[in-house]
Amino acid sequence: MSYPGLATATDDRTAKASPADVRRKNRQLIFALLFPTKQYSRAELGRRTGLSRVAVSDVVGQMLEEGLLRETGQAPSGGKGKRGTLLSIDTNRLRIISIDLTQEHLLHGTVTNLLGQPLRHAEVTLNAGAYVSVDIIIELIEKMLGMSDGEVIGIGVSSPGVVDGGVVRSSTMRGWRNLDLATPINEHFGIDTTVSNDATSAMLTERFFGQGGPNMLFVRMDSGLGSAILLSDTPVIGELHAAGEIGHISIDLNGPLCPCGKRGCLETMISADALRKQMANVDDDERQAILARAGRYLGQALAMPAGLLDMSDVCIFGQPDIINTTFIDAAQAYLDASTSSSFHKHTVIRRCECGPDITVQGEAIAVLLQYLAK
């Protein structure tokens, strides 16, 4: 994959690359082949990467010592020669702190292994409308560090809104504008800190541990509404880091006022919170009608990017009371009617099956990718 830190064996190497650059690239190539759950011998890694036996041995030795890899047993016999030792990702030694800021009334923190699997959890409960300061986030991270049973290689924070490097440029949910999260956290703990958009974090989990392929349009529907785009295994960030902000596209210029200043933004019309308010105290027939209308609205919003990008996979993450058959079928019907053609592959809208830890796991993966790119 071509995320930073998970380069593929087809990536170009230039003659001017320094020895440190070559070593880093080789490390990324080997890690990419093994992540998340593959097992290969040194000889097989050499065959798959095209690296020499000496280069593989050198990089693998360093990664074993660092705690990135572990030896897991003998490879199956392939003839008369000596069987090689299998290598895999080491999930026992290194740890990542991952923070999820997407839930309105609490902050969720985890200690994860290198696969992003949560090992320890902690939460901070928020009062309604409470402002989330950097100090509160730091307090949660301190708690998570105290719960870690291994060396922490990085801290990840997943936030709703437009994220530019370590700065949240705009988050209507949190009321933030140009809030630098990475710098104060990094300075406080002396640990590299990564900040990511929440939809992008969740998309990483779907890509590595769900059903997502290298090309995907990922939609996240909860208290807000956002999306992330993956093309040829590369996230589309946008010129101002706002690619995927589908929630603030207006589909009704006379609709309800959005905190962003526009009217009729998709987020005000069909976010999970908005739909639950619309469905309160109505009978089942009206409930189904509201969900079907919301599905058509989403299909309308997705038609243009799906057509422009020739995207065949749309994955939607959300709770099953909202993202159900009624909603999916309505969105699919609108999308089919608006995009079907002889030259466009059929776009399938499906529900994400990843669990509730999708955000913290994806953010831990984002931290790992940045760590490997150093």
How would you describe what is shown here?
By secondary structure, this protein is an alpha/beta fold. It folds into three domains: 19-89, Orthogonal Bundle (Arc Repressor Mutant, subunit A), CATH 1.10.10; 94-202 and 358-372, Nucleotidyltransferase, domain 5; 213-351, 2-Layer Sandwich (Nucleotidyltransferase, domain 5), CATH 3.30.420. The protein has eleven helices and 16 strands. The chain has helices at residues 19-34, 42-49, 53-66, 134-147, 182-189, 198-209, 266-270, 272-279, 284-309, 325-339, 358-372; strands spanning 40-41, 69-74, 85-89, 94-100, 106-112, 118-125, 151-159, 162-164, 167-171, 176-180, 193-197, 216-221, 225-231, 234-235, 313-317, 348-351. Strand 5 (106-112) and strand 6 (118-125) form a beta hairpin. The radius of gyration is 22 Å and the shape is globular.
Features of the shown structure:
374 residues; alpha/beta; Arc Repressor Mutant, subunit A; Nucleotidyltransferase, domain 5; 3 domains; five-stranded mixed beta sheet; 11 helices; 16 strands; globular; ATPase_NBD; ROK family protein; ROK_cs; WH_DNA-bd_sf
Give a brief rundown of this model:
The protein has 374 residues and is an alpha/beta fold. The chain has helices at residues 19-34, 42-49, 53-66, 134-147, 182-189, 198-209, 266-270, 272-279, 284-309, 325-339, 358-372, and strands spanning 40-41, 69-74, 85-89, 94-100, 106-112, 118-125, 151-159, 162-164, 167-171, 176-180, 193-197, 216-221, 225-231, 234-235, 313-317, 348-351.
